Amino acid sequence: MLSPKTRRNVARVIPFGVLWFIFSLIYAMLEKGIIGNLDHYPSTGVDYNFARNIFLLPSSGLMMGLLTGILEIGYFSKWFIKRSFTKKIIFKSLIYLVIVILFLVIITVINTAYTYNVYSLKNLVSPAWAFFTDYALIGIMVYIASIIVITQFYAEFSQSIGVGTLSNFF
Fold it and tell me: What is the number of structural domains in the chain?
C-alpha cells in the first residue's frame, strides 16, 4: 500500500508522461507526413519504419515524460523554490536541454545498432554524427523545447493553483 504522499506524487508525475506521450505521437505522425514514402532518413541514411516509430517514439516520449515528472516533482520543485518564475524556467530548461541531448544520443545509437545490426563504434557514430550535424536537429530541438516549456508551465501552474484544479480544467 502506498502512502498518501507517494500516491500524490505519482498522480503529479503521470501528467508529464501523458503530455510527452501525446506530443511524441503527434511527432511520429508529422514525421511520416514529412518523410512520405522514403524508406530511410535523408540526413543519416538509417532505415525509416513507420510501424516501428509509431510505437517507439511515443514509448520513448512516455519514458522521457515520466523522467521529467520525477525530476520536476522530486527534485527541481525543491531546488528552485526560492527562484523567480523566469529563473526557474531558464535554469530548468538548460538542465532539460542536457538531458534531452543525452536521451537523443542514446536513442540514435540504439536505433542505429538495431537497424544496421552492427555494433562497431565507427558504424554507430557515423549516422549519429550525421544526425547531430544536420539542420533537421534544430527542428526537433525546437519541438522538444516547446514540450519542455509546456510541461514546465503545467508544473508551475498546477503547483500555484492546485493539482486537482488544473487536472479538472483539462
Answer: 1
The three-state (H, E, C) secondary structure of 42-89, written as one string: CCCCCECCHHHHHHHHHHHHHHHHHHHHHHHHHHHHHHCCCCCHHHHH
Residue type, 86: T
Report yes or no on whether pTM surpasses 0.85. Answer: no
Question: What is the distance between the alpha carbons of residues 103 and 111, in angstroms, rounded to a whole number?
Answer: 12
| Enclosing domain of residue 56 | 4-169
Q: In terms of Cα–Cα distance, which of 105, 106, 127, 101 is closest to 116?
A: 127
Is the torsion defined by CA of 90, 91, 96, 97 positive or negative? positive
Compute the distance between CA of residue 43 and CA of residue 135 in angstroms, rounded to an integer: 9
What 8-state DSSP symbol labels residue 40?
B
Task: For residue range 5-21, list pLDDT tens digits in order.
Answer: 888 888 888 988 998 99
